[in-house]
Amino acid sequence: MPIFDQGYQHWSGQMSGRAWRWLAVTRQGIRGGLKNRFLRYVLFAAWVPALALVLMLCMWGLLERRSSLASTFIQYMSLLQPGVVADPQHYRADIWRLSYGYFLQIELRFSMVLILLVGPNLISQDLRFNALPLYFSRPLRRIDYFLGKLGVILAFLGMVVIVPSIVAYVLGLLFSLDITIVRDTFAILLASVAYGLIIAFSAGLLILALSAMSRNSRYVALCWVAIWLISGIVGTVLQAVDSQQRRYAYYSQISVARPNGRDFDNLPRAERDKQWRAYRQAREKATEEYRIAELGFSAHDWRPLVSYTANLSRLGQQLLGTDQTWKKLSLLDPDQNARDLLLATYMGPQYPWYWSAGVLTGLFGLSACVLNLSVKSLDRLK
Amino acid sequence: MCSEPFGKIAGPAEVRPIVAFHEVSKWYGNVIGLNKLTIQIPAGVTGLLGPNGAGKSTLLQLATGQLYPSQGTVRVLGQPVWNNPSLNRCIGLCPEQDAFYEWMTGWDFLYTSARLGGLSRPDARDATGRTLDAVGMTTHKGRAIRGYSKGMRQRIKIAQALVHGPQVLFLDEPMAGTDPVARRALMDIIQRLGSEGKSVVVSSHVLHEVQSLTPNIILLNRGRLLAEGQVRQIRDLIDKHPHHIVLVCDASRKLASRLVSWDDVEGIRMLPGGKALMVETRSPDAFYGRLPQLSFEDGTEIKEVYSDDDNLEAVFKYLVNK
Amino acid sequence: MAFESGGEPQILFQLDGVTKSYGAVTALDDLSVTVPPGAVGLLGPNGSGKTTMIRTLLGLIPVDAGSGQILGMDFLHRQLKIRREVGFAPENECLFPAVQGVQFVAYAGELVGMRSKDAMQRAHEVLDYVGLGEARYRKVETYSTGMKQRLKLASAIVHDPRLLILDEPTNGMDPDGRQDVLQLCRDLSHNKGMSLLFSSHLLPDVEAVCDHIVVLGSGKLLAQGNIQQLKQVHNQCFEVRVKAGAETFAQGLSALGCSIEARDDILLVQIPEGRSPQMLWQAAAEQKQQIRYLRSQRSTLEEVFLKALEQK
């Protein structure tokens, strides 16, 4: 027939399985997120630490092989840590662990920014434009909807945390050309991926719950800033206030008194300098003692739990095992005091990791409850 | 002055309620709203029609003094309406948008509107009660507006336009969202207001509602006045489209052969079913005049006769779509 | 199963004793109704339970009591499958935000389970059908009301459902748009074999599209049936309009034994038994009147509806 019906045509085609329904929601969310130009800039910027990580791992691989390409790097490192450079294979896992540790700390901050850019709109825009009847009048369960939206967060955070970790690992492996590395460092890769997933699920569900509570994504963004930055500030302030008290307790125990008074001013200059020096030395010693003691004190300190990001980094610290690395590195120094000082400077807070895990699990549960209550099925929707 | 609270019988008005636009133009930046519109709206119910973007809302806003015309003058009840708050007591507006103080109850809202309309406290109380009764919201008057359904909100909106007993009413889509029962009640109210001598302008897209309210219409298109007057008279003036008259007869083909011999019949179409035919003619008067004779010529008894494009829908379509 | 051997369902949907309450308010009260396929209008005053019934049919809400099936599927247990075969265009304004028109419809299809390529192809096809031309490449927030309604309709039929449920589809549209949408609905239900459940307050719209109506009131079924059968024809009653001089004409007719009632500009004439309308023509010829309108008196859908409500 030469003339074809332009009217309505029937359609019968294959449907994808119900298990993949959430993928449609995720794809739509990613497309929407990528339209935001700031998000693209942040994604771009978040890959810079990844490049730094790759560089570090590759350089270390070249160092192990004593390759000429890394000569400047080796010289530089020998100045800093001769002990480590002398026996690179022994310290291989530790260097990798530290590199990943710093990388993940930076990417944690980037993750929070990414969530600020992409998270608030996820559910609150659907509420504002009243899209929920369109969703739920289709064969889509609530769980598919939530998983789909969570998938958006997972995708973006995966792009900045998990994918760079894996790529860096593979490249570092290639540059060292030594298969035994896998035995030493595979746990690090697993830990880093697990950490990425923990951040994605915990922060993702939290931002979804916040997003479901308001139609205005600006309020949601403000809440997120409160949870991320302000809780961090509050935690730091609490800690600082508390530890300052202890610091002054140490200072008050100094045997040498602070030079003061009319008698002091009348003394000759040499005498005054000598007394000042003595005082300063006593103070420095007291400060060192204070810092070493703080490390022990932090084993019982609950104050860091107030900060959301601190909880996440505590878990990351535990998963990667950076504490053991620092302990091992500190053994390079013969002096006990110097060792303790190094540990006190570089190790993270020492309170049990399951406290943080508990806080995060609690938040997770709370978010799930809020989501369940705020996004109801069409039973109660107008 | 010009308003009695709703429900009281108005005394003889000294000034005939008239809304008068004289060569009014209004543009927003470069976008034209109304283009040299001259019109007088008399007492009674008038329908205001037009496709989207025709300028209906602009006309209503100009007539209620919310906008100042770029050219021309707008007078209501003989006075210019811009910057004339005392004239607002004689004007009632039921806008299309849905915006209320959600925390107020229906009774509160209406009482406040009545007081703002210039009624004294006891008068306002009476008027509120009567208006609530008239729109059928007495049972729900104690509930906050945020709990109202769409139809209830619409009825409260109309009530606030009526409560201070204005002489001129502008209703923009008054029946949107109301169910047929409420619709009938509102149509009765509007027709009663029209017959009391008030001037009611109803702007609506639902043509059959406007048709059942009033035969007087104003048709706008692209900001200009397209037609004004009674629907049937306008139809008679449309030359381009011949009238379609449907005849139902058992012997329809025989009737058709009779009709073809008439000069003023321009076309005949047999309708599906075999019992009806449609005649196109440009002189309906002459045609109708000869029908009774035709009916009792042998065997062509006409069972039904009606014109299927003598209504507002057809007039609208012919005029707007050219 | 409600299928005949030929594969055509004889029942569109069926509810048996369905009850649903929200706290103190009973939305559906022991509702039992069986509806044949085709274009069905759903009428009822505000608060009569129409929205609740639609949601029950879609399997979106749990009911307190009762059972039923829609397109042969039990709505208590096969909810997701039902929504695959049913398209729903809700009443209020709803959009997927910040997308183009064609992405909107394709996304709607993907959510039902279509593959993304199928969904995009089908989206374009369906947008051609509803009449959204170049506008489909613009963002949906820039659409006028009429275009949004068409978009909603398109997204409801993108997965080729067997039943299309429309809740006030012509809300806020100008007369041209309204005619177009009604034309589309008529075409879908009469020519393309899609059943339609049309819920609206505008009775002429319902009459233009549907053959069958269901009237609800306070959660109960007040009336249902074929529209033409419900509108009773009064055999000896006619509506007459003359060009001028209606009163004299009326007097002339009552002299001949007819009973006359005047309503607006129409005369309701009841002619005596055994006479035919020819007598009206004779009277017109004698009095030199032009009869411009002559039809058997039939109740309008509005009268049917109001009568059904009164019987409550």
Instruction: Supply the CATH superfamily name of the largest domain in chain C.
Output: P-loop containing nucleotide triphosphate hydrolases
Strand order of the largest sheet of chain C: 6-7-8-3-9-10
Order of helices and strands of chain A: HHHHHHHHHHHHHHHH
Using the alpha-carbon principal axes, give the shape of chain A. globular
Alpha carbon gap, first and last residue of chain A: 49 Å
What is the H/E string of chain C? Answer: EEEHEEHEHHHEHEHEEHEHEEHEH
In total, the number of strands of chain A is 0
Percent strand of chain A equals under 5%
Number of helices of chain A: 16
Q: What does the average pLDDT of chain C come to? A: 87
Taking the alpha carbons of the first and last residues of chain C, their distance comes to 33 Å
User: Which parts of chain A are unreliable, with pLDDT below 50 for 5 consecutive residues or more?
Assistant: none
CATH class division of the largest domain in chain C: Alpha Beta
Provide the number of structural domains of chain C: 2
Class computed from helices, strands and strand pairing of chain C: alpha/beta
Please provide a written account of the structure:
The complex is a heterotrimer of chains A (382), B (322) and C (312). Chain A contains 16 helices and no strands. With 382 residues, chain A is mainly alpha-helical. The model of chain A has no long low-confidence stretch (mean pLDDT 86). The relative contact order of chain A is 0.11. Chain B has two domains: 217 residues, Rossmann fold (3-Layer(aba) Sandwich), CATH 3.40.50.300; 82 residues, Alpha-Beta Plaits (2-Layer Sandwich). By secondary structure, chain B is of the alpha/beta class. Chain B contains ten helices and 14 strands. The radius of gyration of chain B is 24 Å and the shape is elongated. Chain C has 312 residues and is α/β, with parallel strands linked by helices. The longest helix of chain C has 16 residues. Chain C starts with 12 loop residues before the first strand and ends with a helix. The N terminus of chain C is likely disordered. The chains are: A mainly alpha (382), B alpha/beta (322), C alpha/beta (312). At the B-C interface, helix 4, helix 5, helix 9, strand 14 and helix 10 of B face helix 6, helix 10, strand 14 and helix 11 of C.
